[in-house]
């Protein structure tokens, strides 16, 4: 209960903050996009990572409002950077399963885009395979509406869920993010090599952009780019960083 009240007042008092982790083109090394990741900046405890408050937010029914805030924050930030002459890239926001149960997410996305006047192509949404599979029919319907708004759609943690190829084909997906567990195995075990190669081959066949998550070492980058995975995200390139730091990365265009 105490933690619940702390989180509610942190949210109300503006202590939530979005960090940004770039994803890069594995050949050129240039930033091609980013993922927005939430942090709780407590005046005493410092930065609290999402694993310590997102599950609680889901439990107490606060996750929807927090995600709505995240979407509006990211859109406003992007527009501000763009207005100041910076060459912006698409940024993704993580959605939760609950948001694929009714139509509210469509209104939320429209409002975020309208209020910021950010072109839709600079916003992406991520949902995990397991979130998508809770109610595949409703999810497909909502994803089609999201696609119609011009927002790109990424499937997160790919390879860990149970989605069949048949379903993936029914969803209007633009990007597949290969789960960190496979990416980190490609320099170590044959199992990960086989799965990662198969995911990349399949994603190519279905014309998805492929992003490898959790790239930490050069050997992983090398494996991925030689297997024609286009983009990567991970500590090898950058940790998730505060908005001002990310802005500098965009300005330097590294
Ligand atoms: O760095 P990282 O610790 O940022 O994030 C851990 C997990 O927390 C992510 O995999 C993601 O599932 C979740 N997460 C982070 N930020 C957000 C957010 O803004 N919204 C939602 N729904 N989940 C988030
Ligand atoms: O939403 P999702 O689970 O995809 O969020 C990505 C998570 O992965 C975040 O918690 C982020 O901090 C974390 N992350 C990003 N890059 C790396 C990395 O190179 N190594 C590890 N171990 N975690 C990473
Ligand atoms: Mn994600
Ligand atoms: Na992920």
From TrEMBL:
<protein>
    <submittedName>
        <fullName>Diguanylate cyclase (GGDEF)-like protein/PAS domain S-box-containing protein</fullName>
    </submittedName>
</protein>
<feature type="domain" description="EAL">
    <location>
        <begin position="1"/>
        <end position="254"/>
    </location>
</feature>
């Amino acid at each position: 209960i105490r933690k619940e009240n702390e989180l509610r007042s942190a949210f109300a008092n503006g202590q939530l903050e979005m960090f940004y982790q770039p994803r890069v083109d594995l050949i050129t090394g240039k930033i091609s996009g980013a993922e927005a990741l939430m942090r709780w900046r407590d005046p005493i405890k410092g930065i609290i990572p999402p694993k310590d408050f997102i599950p609680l937010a889901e439990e107490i029914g606060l996750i929807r409002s927090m995600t709505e805030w995240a979407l509006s924050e990211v859109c406003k930030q992007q527009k501000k950077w763009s207005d100041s002459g910076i060459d912006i890239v698409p940024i993704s926001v993580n959605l939760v399963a609950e948001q694929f149960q009714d139509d509210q997410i469509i209104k939320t996305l429209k409002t975020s885009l309208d209020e910021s006047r950010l072109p839709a192509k600079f916003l992406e949404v991520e949902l995990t395979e397991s979130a998508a599979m809770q109610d595949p029919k409703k999810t497909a319907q909502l994803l089609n509406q999201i696609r119609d708004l011009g927002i790109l759609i990424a499937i997160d943690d790919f390879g860990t869920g149970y989605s069949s190829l048949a379903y993936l084909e029914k969803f209007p997906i633009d990007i597949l993010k290969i789960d960190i567990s496979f990416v980190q195995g490609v320099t170590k075990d044959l199992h990960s090599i086989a799965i990662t190669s198969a995911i990349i081959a399949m994603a190519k066949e279905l014309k998805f952009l492929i992003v490898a998550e959790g790239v930490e070492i050069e050997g992983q980058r090398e494996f991925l780019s030689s297997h024609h995975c286009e983009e990567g995200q991970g500590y090898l390139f950058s940790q998730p960083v505060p908005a001002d730091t990310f802005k500098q990365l965009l300005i330097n265009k590294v």
